[in-house]
Amino acid sequence: MSFWSITLATLAKDIRLEWRSKDALNAMLFFSLLVVVIFVFSFDPLAEESRHIVGGLVWVAFLFAAVVALNQTWARELRNQVLDGYRVSPAPATALFLAKVLGNFIFVSVLEALMAPLFVIFYNLHVLGPAWQLIPVALLGTWALVVNGTFFAAMSLRTRSRELMLPLLLFPVSIPAVLGMVAATTNILTGENSAHFYIVLLLTYDVVFTTACLGLFETVLQAE
Amino acid sequence: MTSKLFPILAVLTAIFLAYAFYLAMFIAPTDALQGDVYRIIYYHVPSAWTAFLLFFINFVASVQFLANAKPSTKRVVNWIVIVVGIIGFIAPFFPQVKAQLPTGMYPSSVATTALIIVGLYFLVGKLFPGQKLDMLALTAAEVGVVFCTVVLVTGPIWARPVWGIWWAPGDIRLTSTLVLWLIYVSYLVLRRFSDSAQTQKLAAVLAVFGALDVPQVYFSIWFFRTQHPQPVIGGGGSIDPRMLHVLLLSWMAFLCFASLICWSRYNLERLRREVDEAEALESLNGSGLPAGSNASTRIPVSRSTK
Predict the structure, then answer these.
(1) How many domains does chain A have?
(2) pLDDT recorded at residue A174
(3) Domain enclosing residue A115, as ranges
(4) Helix or strand (DSSP H, E) at A203
(5) Is the ipTM of this complex over 0.90?
(6) Residues 178-217 (B) with a CB less than 8 A from some CB of A
């Protein structure tokens, strides 16, 4: 079997599992809904102010919600020793990793597509900059969160209290990506500055960390 | 020998630190603009340099540790380091790159730094083979976090009277130092929480991620103008030679202090692992072998080193 067919098979399996159980998606959706509602109660901004702060709020909500899904990625494979099966199989570890990242990317993107309208409603948002640029920012930002998140979730499998470990490992490394996403979103919402620099920054971050994750995943998977 | 040398070196370091303190407080001239409050740089800057050096050692040891997994990886990584070193040595002399360097930073000094980094990489691999690399990485990270904490505490103490604010959010140097500190704290947390035999490998992977992260942080706040004073050396800033003299001496004292702590922490870690190993062996022997054969094993010997 080729690299891509293994990736696609694993991805299809994950999507089928998620489609039937809807565990991760439901948990994420409700969690981020709660975060949004709490934010709405905590801050009651005018339309003008909200443009400046929503960039931060949106990404913080998505970051927290993504952690919920990421924690389940590998925990699911521990039952029935599925992960051990992967380890001894001749399939390349990177194919498995890529499939997991793509799966999480799809789940988190679906979540973002569903939650974004809520932010618009609650905060009376009206985008002043070029709104289409929000799409590349969202895609690149989500990939940045998900690629490192999947990697660190695999890493925290080996630790005690692994659900707690993931954010502790993921958040410090994600700081530049979060800075980029928030600044880009704020720039687009307010229309005051160009977001090009931050889109390029996110792209660099994605390329660097995707390469690093693919290169080092074999080590993490085989660590027992 | 270690037990005799350590107290002597400790006393010498204490004297050196006291001398540096005396120079910093009484001999160094008062700053024309800031007055006496500037004297905190004799603690702030040496701590920062020491912390960065230790983090760099941690990174080098982690890369070496990961590269040691397979002979083929080791060869590839060695070649990469050599090629990067050669590029780093030659590149600063090209006019295009030369123009990018900050004023006051000479191409030759950049080239020498590149050589020193390559040398350090191979020296660490030579002096600390196998498991010792991991012990070195752990030691450097722990002591580095302590010095980095000193930097993050002394910085705001200085900033409050001089800038009028404790912390400048978005400042390039402040933020990257803070993120570096956060990453290494998460590194130590990982080591604490992970109890499998593969902790070392996972920690090394995290160290590599941290090293990739810092330049990204640096660029992500490129747009913000820094409020932080220019670097003392190679930053184009002008400093009184007497101040520079005290600063460098202070750094030497801090380096001695840091090496002393690292040494003692390293020995502690070595003993701890020996004890663990001995206990594991003992429990193995205790279940499998008759009691009489225990005398011939080396367990009591390594226990006694404790």
Answers:
(1) 1
(2) 92
(3) 3-222
(4) helix A196-222
(5) no
(6) 179, 182-183, 185-186, 189-190, 193-199, 201-202, 205-206, 208-210, 212-213, 216-217
